[in-house]
Amino acid sequence: MSHPAVPAPTLRAPLPVAPTLVRLGRAIATLELPAIEKIAEEMMGDAFQVLISTMLSAQTRDAVTLGASLRLFAVAPDPARLARLSAERIETLIYPVSFYRNKAVYLKDTARLLLERHDGQVPTTMEALTALPGVGRKTANLTLIVACRSTANICVDTHVHRIANRVGWVRTRTPEQTERALYAVVPRRWWAGVNLHLVTWGQHVCKPVFPQCGRCLLNDRCPRINVIREGRVA
Ligand code: SF4
After folding, report:
1. Catalytic residue check, 46
2. Which DSSP string corresponds to 34-63?
C-alpha cells in the first residue's frame, strides 16, 4: 500500500494586520516611547518642536535626538529665536546628531521660511511641509500625525519598512513603496498608529539585526520574511 506524499512545507501566511496591531498595542504599553512621542508629550504637542525634533532624528539614535532637542529648545523654543541663531551655534547645540552640520543649516532655513511663508506656524499639508529644506515624507507624515493629530497619514521609517516586510504585509524595496502599499492593506483607523506600534516594537524586539523572535509575541504565526538569523534570548 502506498503512503500519501508528505505535503511540502508551506510558507506561513502574512500576519493579519488589525489583530496584530491590537496585540502590539497591548505589548508596547509598558515600553519606553520613541523620542518624538516623548518630546511631543513633554512639549505639549508643540508642532514646531515636533517638526524640528523629527528633522534631528534622521539616522540618529533616540537618546541623542532627545538630548539635542532639549538643548536646542532651551535656547530656541520657537521659529523666531531659532532663525536668529547662527548655523555654528546650532551645530554646537545639536552635536552629536548625524549630519549635524547639514541639519544646522536646514534648521535655520526652516525657521526662516516658517516666519516668511507661514506666519511662524507649522503648515499642515504634505506639500507645504516637504517644501521646507531637509523635510521629506517621513518627517512630514510624523509631524502631521504627532503634532496635527492627522489620521490620514502613515509614517514609514526604517523600522516600519523592515517589520511590515518581515510580517508579510508588504513586499517592497524602499520606505516610499512601503508607505504606498500600507495605505492599501492597513485599515484606515490604524494609519496614524502604525508608526508608534512598529517603531516601538522595532526598537525593543524586532530589531534590524538579530530580531528577538524567541521572545516576540508574534512568533507563533510570523512568517519572518528575510530574517536570516535571530538574536539570542537571554
Ligand atoms: S521579532 Fe521575529 S517573530 Fe517578531 S515580528 Fe519580528 S520577525 Fe516576526
Report:
1. no
2. PHHHHHHHHTTT-HHHHHHHHHHHTTS-HH
What is the C-alpha separation between 25 and 134, in angstroms, rounded?
31
Task: Indicate the pLDDT class of residue 3, thresholds 50, 70 and 90.
Answer: very low
Ligand 1 centroid distance, CA of 163 (Å): 8
Active-site residue flag, 103:
no
Please indicate, yes or no, whether residues 139 and 170 belong to a single structural domain of this protein.
no
Q: Pick the closest to residue 165 from 220, 222, 212 (CA basis).
A: 222
Cα(156) to ligand 1 centroid in Å equals: 18
Per-residue confidence (pLDDT) for residue 10, from 0 to 100: 47
Check whether residue 56 and residue 133 sit in a common domain.
Answer: yes
- The amino acid that residue 2 corresponds to is S
Out of 46, 103, 108, 157, pick the active-site residue: 157
Catalytic residue among 108, 109, 138, 220: 138
One domain for residues 91 and 114: yes
CATH code (residue 37): 1.10.340.30
Which three cell numbers mark 157? 521609517
Tell me how far the alpha carbon of residue 233 lies from the centroid of ligand 1, in angstroms. 13
Domain encompassing residue 158? 1-30+154-234
Amino acid at 126: M
* Ligand 1 environment, Cβ below 6 A: 166-167, 205-206, 211-213, 216, 218-219, 222, 224, 227
Give the model confidence (pLDDT) of 75-107 as tens digits.
999 999 999 999 999 999 999 999 999 999 999
Distance between Cα 225 and ligand 1 center (Å): 9
Statement to judge: residues 52 and 147 lie in one domain: yes
pLDDT at 9 over 60: no
